[in-house]
Amino acid sequence: MTNSDLANALLQACQKRGIMLATAESCTGGMIIAALTDIAGSSAVVDRGFITYSNEAKMDMLGVSAATLDAHGAVSRETAIEMATGALTRSRAGLTLAVTGIAGPGGGSAEKPVGLVWFGVALDGRPIVAEHQLFADKGRDFIRRETVRQALELGLQALG
């Protein structure tokens, strides 16, 4: 499936369940919300997208704690969970998709290499799902497109 197909399937799944959707994006810079809103009729389901590239934006817009960022960094399970939670509580959405990662070409380390992305998925009334992927370092565009694909797939999985 293409990212467009996945976005369309996710919108239909949300519409079928009667829930709104929001995103909280760092490394993708709005590509997930763009994939969703590229589709006509998406306004029936899409509430908003939080583009929180800086740590300050994560704290201000989503309520990610400074303590979490200090202890674990922006690219971490804990931050992805707080991003997903913040998007859920600060929107009308019943499903939120959060991503934070290192798209490269720089910024990686031995502990957190280029291609590492953490995902947080919050579905109202359910435990938050957090997982990570280490995408091949085939360039920034590749990592960001694969992050969008994975986030859309995780949203579909959350909805069953």
From TrEMBL:
CinA C-terminal domain sequence ranges: 5-155
Family annotation (Gene3D superfamilies): CinA-like
Classification via InterPro entries: CinA-like_C (IPR036653), CinA_C (IPR008136)
Domain of life assignment: Bacteria
Pfam families: CinA (PF02464)
NCBIfam families, per database record: PncC_domain
Protein name (database record): CinA family protein
Organism of this sequence: Mesorhizobium ciceri
